């Protein structure tokens, strides 16, 4: 006995069991439909597509929803046509969801870039502050050395430049020097 000798009812039952067990999906039924005329005739059996509708579109399988793409009520549509309509709607919803996800990801990237630019600006500002503090620290160190030289050596020996540095400094050198050292360490 060959496969072509089996009655249509038996083939229909095999297809029903395949759909019911999730071994066959809509793509499989479409492929079977083009395999032979007999399988093509059997693969459009309404019970198969009704089972696929209830399995694949569980939340949308209510017959009371109206079809926007056809003027007939959905109850009069063949389950395969109804499946095609719902599948196309599902494809559109999934494409929209992917687009939304891409837009949200792009928005997060843009926000991260803005934050990165802000942080880079802050780093540049802090770098400038550090340079200014280091330069002031260097100047104060020179003033402190000149002050020590004025106190230790005889004023006649001290050169005019050191005396001028000490006289120009209005802030107590030691306290400002310790403050700048602490600031640079932080």
Total number of distinct structural domains: 2
Average pLDDT figure: 81
Rounded to the nearest angstrom, the radius of gyration is: 42 Å
What's the overall geometry?
Answer: rod-shaped
* Secondary structure tally: strands: 0
The poorly predicted ranges are 61-71
Main beta-sheet annotation: none
Strand fraction band?
under 5%
Q: Report the helical percentage.
A: over 70%
End-to-end separation in angstroms reads 90 Å
- Label the structural class: mainly alpha
- The SSE order reads HHHHHHH
Helical segment tally? 7
Structural overview:
This protein is mainly alpha-helical. The protein folds into two domains: 8-61, no CATH class; 94-185. 74% of the residues lie in helices and 0% in strands. It is built from seven helices and no strands. The protein has helices at residues 8-20, 26-35, 37-43, 46-56, 79-152, 160-168, 173-185. It is rod-shaped and about 125 Å long. The termini are far apart.
């Amino acid at each position: 006995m060959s496969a072509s000798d089996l009655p249509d009812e038996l083939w229909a039952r095999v297809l029903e069991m395949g759909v019911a067990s999730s071994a066959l999906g809509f793509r499989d039924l479409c492929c079977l439909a083009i395999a032979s005329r007999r399988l093509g005739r059997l693969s459009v059996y309404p019970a198969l597509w009704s089972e696929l509708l209830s399995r694949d579109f569980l939340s949308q399988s209510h017959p009371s929803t109206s079809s926007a793409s056809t003027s007939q009520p959905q109850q009069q549509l063949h389950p395969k046509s109804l499946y095609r309509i719902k599948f196309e709607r599902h494809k559109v919803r999934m494409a929209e969801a992917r687009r939304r996800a891409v837009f949200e990801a792009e928005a997060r990237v843009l926000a991260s870039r803005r934050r990165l630019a802000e942080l880079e600006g802050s780093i540049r500002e802090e770098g400038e502050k550090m340079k200014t503090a280091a330069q002031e620290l260097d100047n104060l160190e020179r003033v402190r050395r000149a002050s020590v030289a004025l106190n230790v050596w005889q004023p006649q020996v001290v050169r005019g430049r050191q005396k001028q540095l000490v006289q120009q400094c209005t802030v107590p050198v030691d306290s400002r020097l310790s403050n700048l050292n602490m600031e640079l360490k932080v």
